[in-house]
Structures are given as structure tokens and as C-alpha cells.
Amino acid sequence: MLTEFAEFILYTQLLLSNPAGLGVGLIWSNDEVAQGFAWDEDTIAFGVPDHDGDCLVSVDTGPETSLVVADDALWAVAVPFTAAGPTVEVGTVLSECPIPIVPGRYQVLFQARPGTTEHAFRLEITFSRNDRPGFAILKQGILKTGRVLRKQASRV
Question: For the whole model, what pTM was predicted?
Fold first, then answer.
């Protein structure tokens, strides 16, 4: 199921969380900034470097999705995620959108693509069922590293 919405990005991050992870703050160390994400089992923050403003957010929960990095992707990362219930929350601080999903383990692809005159970026989150998901920098682009430096972020 594909869901798209405009979102005013705050604090240079797009959040993905289980409902239990709402309100969980993650600390962005130099490692998280360099790799473009901060990860916790209930909440993931994807960095949107040097930008607070409107973006188009696209979330694809399947059921049959493939994880393909777009040719025009500015950067792309893959992270594991376990959907605990029938929805996940995607958005920014204090502005989350509930997205229907089948509970289970997923490999998640986050990629940032060029925007339009109306949106600075197109931020895409794609879920693919996977019993053994992992972490990877799939396209370094503007990120400061081409490898994952830190898997578990500290909570605030």
C-alpha cells in the first residue's frame, strides 16, 4: 500500500516508529549524523541534512515490495524494523501520520530523491518483509560515510 503526504520537516529528521516509540528521542552523535540515521528498536530517525521545510513523503508497505535504490537517489540507507501492530507512525516531531501495515519483521529502505518546486526532497520509505534484516549504506551520496558506524542510538 502506497501512502504519500506533504510534511514540514522539523529538526532535520523524518521519524518512523511503532506507536510505543512515539515521543522517544534519539541522540544524534557524530556517527549517526555521518551515516544519516539514528536507530532504536521502536524508533528510527532518518536525517534530512540542512533542511527544515516541506518535503513529499512516500511510504510503501507492500504487500510485495522490492528494495531498489532509484538512479536519482541523493542518498539511501537500509535498516531493520519490526512492526509491532497494525500501524506505524511516519512524520516529524509532533506531526506523525499513522500508516497501516501487517505486523512483522521488515527490511526498510530510506532514500532521499530530488524534490520539485513545491518540495525540497522526495523522502521514500519502503518496507520489505525479511526474517533477517540488517543495516547498510546503499548509496553514500551526501552522507559523510559509506558504512554503518553505529547501529544502536542512545535515547534522550
Answer: 0.95
